[in-house]
Amino acid sequence: MTTKGPEIDLLRVSDITVRFGGIVALDGVAFNVPQGKIVGLIGPNGAGKTTLFNCLSRIYQPSSGTIEFDGKSIMSLPAHKIASLGIGRTFQNLALFNTATVLENIRIGSHPRTSSDLTSDIFSLPGSRRVNKEATQIADHLISYLDLNKVAYKNVSDLPFGTKKRVELARALALSPRLLLLDEPACGLNHEEVKELGETICRARKDFDLTILLVEHHMGLVMGISDRIVAFNFGRRIAAGTPREIQSDPQVISAYLGERK
Ligand SMILES: Nc1ncnc2c1ncn2[C@@H]1O[C@H](COP(=O)(O)OP(=O)(O)OP(=O)(O)O)[C@@H](O)[C@H]1O
């Protein structure tokens, strides 16, 4: 019999409160994301999910609480340091450079991990050339991995929405993140694309040794691939547990009444 090692929390969110004027978007929220797991974050519209992602990305500063990544507080870090720490993210409304090609967008994703200094870049010194080569290798690998070969040299603006979503996932993976934050990756995808997305997320978790925090309204996807789920309503955590436990939780059912997708 094999014995499993102790579970380590890669992300610890404790007592996070965020206010926008009179609105309390998050009210003392706490949960952990164990290393290697997929944790789903669910809740009706306005529950505070995106606000939480923006706290994790250091875009919003909570009025109280702490966030620890790999045992260290990230509360004093600026937003631009988060990626180099190993926290990657996709966005609900996509954050791609539309006039750049797929390859260029994915290359940019690896920048915080591979970046050289300004002088090397300006004078095209060996350090800069090495970085460019590495960025291209990473992008080439991800283009094959996510089946984007046929569109690698196309401008992102010319692509169908589902393909753009795959490009954004590739851009986030180019960072080689340890923690990947996925903000509604199934939004706007058709049934077949959602199925493929679920398979891709699970495959990527294994192949890239990822820990994933997934905000998602698509119940089929989030229940199908999450190890654990945390449910929010009105800025508060109302339940946490396995997908099976969450599906039968009275508070979750009540929060979602009439909102089933
Ligand atoms: N920048 C902001 N300024 C003012 N209020 C905000 C801001 N961002 C979010 N809110 C408010 O905070 C609350 C939580 O919003 P949030 O976008 O985090 O919810 P959500 O769970 O992500 O919703 P959805 O599923 O619709 O994306 C809402 O009442 C929202 O109107």
From TrEMBL:
Gene3D superfamilies, sorted: P-loop containing nucleotide triphosphate hydrolases (3.40.50.300)
Xref: SUPFAM superfamilies: P-loop containing nucleoside triphosphate hydrolases
UniProt keyword Secreted present: no
Pfam families per the UniProt record, alphabetical: ABC_tran, BCA_ABC_TP_C
Keyword hit for Translocase: no
Any one Gene Ontology molecular-function term assigned to this protein's record: ATP binding
InterPro entries, sorted: AAA+_ATPase, ABC_AA/LPS_Transport, ABC_transporter-like_ATP-bd, BCA_ABC_TP_C, P-loop_NTPase
Name this polypeptide is given: Branched-chain amino acid transport system ATP-binding protein
Keywords: ATP-binding, Cell membrane, Membrane, Nucleotide-binding, Transport
Species this protein is from: Ottowia thiooxydans
Source taxon at top rank: Bacteria
Domain ABC transporter: 11-259
